[in-house]
């Protein structure tokens, strides 16, 4: 079932499928009000309308000579609140009109329902393979005085608990207006207690989970860094206080956008909650000329009645079917070896080939040549922008190396950082104006590099041609697209100064155009997105690049939290996870190869260490890890992921993944203790009446689904030493 109904008597819109309902009502003043988003409702007769009450010091509507003291726009739950007429909460849209004023007044006019989705001209957005998979409601609102039309887009998808929203402003007037803020969506929930769940961090510490009760006032989670960033992910969840991993209401929000953003929650004095997400408004302003339109990025809204695991599973179903290109949905991700931590910039052809030899012998499937193969790139201070081969390092060239790798039965991958330019590069010497910069100010460096002005077509075209020259002449199966600094002096030398507030967003539009063109030109290449690790782990990038390098931090202990947090946003088959050397290069911590393998196995598995330094027993163990991953790859990459024990709350971590009649559990203990209490892992998603064979690393036994879910598995209490891990496998016996 997938319906979008409009009841003309009640003026109610009801979008629903088998799992969710979204309800809105046009009120007596043609304000579009929010009624409900939650589990599917079959019969809606009219509950939930906000009572009309006189609230002192709220502004009333006085229209047609009548003052209605019980109607205050500032307390009515709305779908997209505007600014300046007495709603004092955070507006969804702020426009400076031709008269200089900021007051807007958008009222409902009409609607349209279409099959499928509308797509987006310039941005990534949820797609459908067939129009029967979704329906879209387009609500049209008008500011009559200024002749501006605001279109609100709502798409609901077959059997998915996620819907998408975006907004478009169309200027039907003769005047130019300036958009100062325009959110992808806004929504008001009526009085209640809520917690806010968010993912923040830093480089090599991405997606740390934090939960706090929402109090009065405004709480903003944002990025002004030019990218979605390591520091704050474009994700938040508003949940009931009692919600846990498996129970309770969750409303999660993600942006299909990789640039500056803001996510806001505001609790008003009456405990209503306004939630918003969209492009960061600080530094943003968009000049909208007559007959032009501006369309925001898309936001996803997911509802789960089954806690955070329910949210994850719902989001993952949606991302796999409607965000990541379908050609990658079932595609098995190869096990890769990346030379970065093995060599950094200091490699030779001989050294690279010796890594390839070792990797192929161990059963690894893809060799990735990381940073340092181009221009005169011997350190991070030069050559970005010079995408031609570094002859000294690879005297026989990339083509010969690619052949060498292919002859070894492996795929070949290559690293690029297309959005950047080094001061010490041929490109910068020829085009110093191509970096983002102001004519009269110093240009700030980050990792010794500048950011190319990707809002410019000539800049993009140059880099595109350079990349195409490499990708079409050398057999390349995989590309790692990196981005290693955040943006400053965001200004474009060729854009009129009145449009300076558009540069950061125009950069993103340019980047998406580039990625769309490149991935269409090379549909067979598997792209992995990276920004100093997981600095752009967002649904915008995932539309072009189905894998993401989750973090530059490969320490398995730190990775538990990073991967746990990341799993709140996206499926395991997006999450690059590598076994690296011990002591770890980021933390100096020593851990066993087993712990490193067991953490990296729950993601897109790979290696990132000098295989020439392995002992014979390491080699045996790595071969076993590779075989294990290949045997269970389908289950891990396609299965249902469930978090069981949180490393944010305990000294342990556990998660499971299940598909058909098999379930894998990974259990990790961080620091050990003497006289340890017993640890139990209780399970989900088993068939209660079925008999399972349970394979632990120490024994094998049989148990029924219901007892396993009720009593759980006891972890071997004599497990000793810090940083331990265990893997359990459950196989359902045939009836
Ligand atoms: C940052 C990435 O996250 C690393 O994996 C590596 O590719 C370096 N950049 C190379 O400069």
Topology (elements, then pairings):
Blueprint: E1 2-7, E2 12-17, E3 20-26, E4 32-39, E5 60-63, E6 66-72, E7 93-96, E8 107-115, E9 134-143, E10 148-157, E11 162-171, E12 177-189, E13 195-200, E14 208-213, E15 217-223, E16 232-239, E17 250-256, E18 261-267, E19 273-279, E20 286-288, E21 293-295, E22 298-304, H1 307-322, E23 336-338, H2 340-343, H3 349-362, E24 366-369, H4 397-407, E25 411-416, E26 420-422, H5 426-430, E27 449-451, H6 457-473, E28 478-481, H7 503-521, E29 526-529, H8 539-542, E30 547-549, H9 556-566, E31 575-580, H10 593-600, E32 604-608, H11 616-638, E33 640-645, E34 652-659, E35 662-669, E36 680-681, E37 691-695, E38 700-704, H12 705-711, E39 713-714, E40 724-732
Parallel strand pairs: 23-24, 23-32, 24-25, 25-28, 28-29, 29-30, 30-31, 31-32
Antiparallel strand pairs: 1-2, 2-3, 3-4, 5-6, 7-12, 8-9, 9-10, 10-11, 11-21, 11-22, 12-19, 12-20, 13-14, 13-16, 15-18, 16-17, 17-22, 18-19, 26-27, 33-34, 34-35, 35-40, 36-39, 37-38, 37-40
Helix pairs in contact: 6-7, 9-10, 10-11
Residues 340, 370-371, 415, 482, 484, 530, 532-533, 549, 552 line the site of (2R,3S,4R,5S)-2-(hydroxymethyl)piperidine-3,4,5-triol.
Characterise this structure.
The structure is a single chain. The protein contains twelve helices and 40 strands. The chain has 735 residues and is an alpha+beta fold. The chain folds into three domains: 3-323, Beta-galactosidase, Chain A, domain 5, CATH 2.70.98.60; 334-638, TIM Barrel, CATH 3.20.20; 652-732, Immunoglobulin-like, CATH 2.60.40.1180. The strands form eight sheets. Strands 8, 9, 10, 11, 13, 14, 16, 17, 21 and 22 form a ten-stranded antiparallel beta sheet that branches. The protein has an eight-stranded parallel β-barrel with strand order 23-24-25-28-29-30-31-32, surrounded by four helices. Helix 9 (556-566) runs parallel beside helix 10 and helix 10 packs parallel to helix 11. The longest helix is centred in the last third of the chain and has 23 residues, at 616-638. The chain is globular and about 90 Å long. Residues 340, 370-371, 415, 482, 484, 530, 532-533, 549, 552 line the site of (2R,3S,4R,5S)-2-(hydroxymethyl)piperidine-3,4,5-triol.
């Amino acid at each position: 079932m997938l319906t979008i109904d409009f009841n003309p008597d009640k003026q109610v819109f009801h979008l629903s499928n088998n799992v969710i309902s979204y309800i809105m009502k046009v009120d007596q003043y043609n304000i579009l009000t929010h009624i409900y988003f939650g589990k599917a409702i079959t019969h809606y007769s009219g509950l939930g309308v906000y009572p009309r009450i006189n609230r002192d010091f709220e502004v009333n509507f006085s229209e047609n000579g009548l003052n209605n003291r019980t109607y205050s726009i500032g307390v009515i739950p709305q779908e997209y609140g505007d600014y300046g007429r007495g709603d004092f909460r955070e507006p969804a849209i702020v426009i400076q009109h031709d008269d200089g004023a900021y007051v807007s007044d958008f009222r409902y006019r009409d609607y349209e329902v279409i099959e499928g989705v509308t797509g987006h001209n310039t941005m990534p957005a949820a797609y459908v393979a067939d129009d029967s998979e979704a329906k879209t409601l387009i609500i049209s609102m008008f500011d009559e005085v200024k002749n501006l039309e605001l279109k609100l887009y709502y798409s609901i998808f077959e059997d998915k608990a996620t819907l998408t929203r975006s907004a478009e402003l169309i200027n039907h007037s003769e005047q130019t207006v300036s958009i100062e803020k325009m959110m992808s969506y806004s929504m008001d929930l009526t009085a209640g207690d809520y917690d806010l769940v968010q993912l923040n961090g830093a480089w090599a510490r991405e997606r740390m989970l934090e939960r706090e009760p929402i109090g009065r006032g405004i709480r903003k989670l944002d990025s002004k860094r030019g990218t979605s960033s390591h520091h704050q992910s474009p994700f938040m969840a508003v949940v009931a206080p009692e919600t846990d991993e498996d129970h309770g209401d969750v409303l999660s929000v993600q942006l299909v956008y990789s640039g500056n953003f803001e996510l806001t929650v505001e609790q008003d004095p009456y405990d209503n909650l306004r939630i918003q997400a969209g492009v960061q408004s600080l530094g943003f302003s968009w000049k909208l000329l007559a007959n032009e339109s501006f369309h925001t990025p898309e936001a996803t809204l997911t509802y789960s009645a089954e806690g955070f695991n329910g949210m994850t599973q719902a989001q993952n179903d949606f991302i796999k079917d409607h965000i990541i290109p379908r050609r990658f949905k079932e595609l098995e991700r190869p096990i890769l070896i990346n030379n970065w931590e093995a060599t950094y910039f200091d490699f030779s052809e001989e050294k690279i080939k010796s890594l390839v030899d070792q990797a192929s012998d161990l059963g690894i499937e893809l060799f990735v040549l990381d940073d340092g193969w181009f221009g005169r790139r011997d350190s991070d201070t030069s050559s970005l922008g010079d995408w031609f081969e570094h002859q000294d390092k690879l005297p026989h060239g990339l083509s010969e190396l690619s052949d060498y790798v292919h002859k070894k039965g492996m795929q070949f991958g290559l690293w690029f950082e297309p959005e950047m330019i080094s001061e010490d590069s041929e490109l910068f010497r020829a085009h110093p104006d191509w970096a983002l910069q102001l004519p009269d100010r110093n240009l700030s460096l980050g990792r010794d590099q500048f950011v190319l002005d990707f809002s410019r077509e000539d800049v993009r075209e140059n880099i595109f041609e350079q990349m195409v020259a490499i990708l079409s002449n050398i057999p390349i199966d995989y590309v790692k697209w990196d981005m290693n600094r955040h943006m400053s002096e965001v200004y474009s030398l060729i854009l009129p100064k009145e449009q300076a507030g558009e540069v950061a967003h125009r950069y993103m539009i340019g980047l998406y155009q580039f990625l769309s063109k490149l991935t269409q030109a090379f549909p067979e290449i598997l792209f992995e997105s990276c920004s100093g690790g997981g600095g752009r782990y967002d649904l915008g990038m995932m539309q072009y690049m189905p894998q993401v390098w989750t973090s530059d931090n490969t320490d398995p202990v730190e990775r538990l939290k990073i991967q746990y947090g990341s799993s709140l946003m996206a499926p395991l088959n997006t999450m690059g996870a590598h076994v690296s050397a011990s002591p770890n290069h980021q933390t100096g911590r020593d851990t066993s190869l087993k712990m490193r393998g067991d953490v990296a196995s729950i993601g897109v598995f790979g290696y990132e260490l000098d295989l020439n330094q392995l002992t014979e027993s390491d080699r045996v163990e790595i071969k076993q890890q590779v075989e294990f991953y290949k045997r269970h790859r389908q289950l891990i990459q396609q299965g249902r992921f469930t978090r069981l024990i949180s490393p944010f709350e305990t000294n342990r971590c556990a998660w499971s993944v299940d598909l058909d009649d098999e379930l894998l559990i990974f259990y990790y203990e961080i620091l050990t203790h003497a006289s340890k209490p017993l640890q139990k892992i209780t399970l989900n998603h088993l068939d209660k009446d079925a008999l399972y064979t349970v394979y632990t690393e120490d024994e094998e036994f049989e148990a029924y689904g219901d007892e396993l879910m009720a009593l759980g598995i006891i972890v071997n209490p004599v497990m000793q030493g810090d940083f331990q891990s265990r893997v359990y496998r459950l196989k359902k016996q045939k009836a």
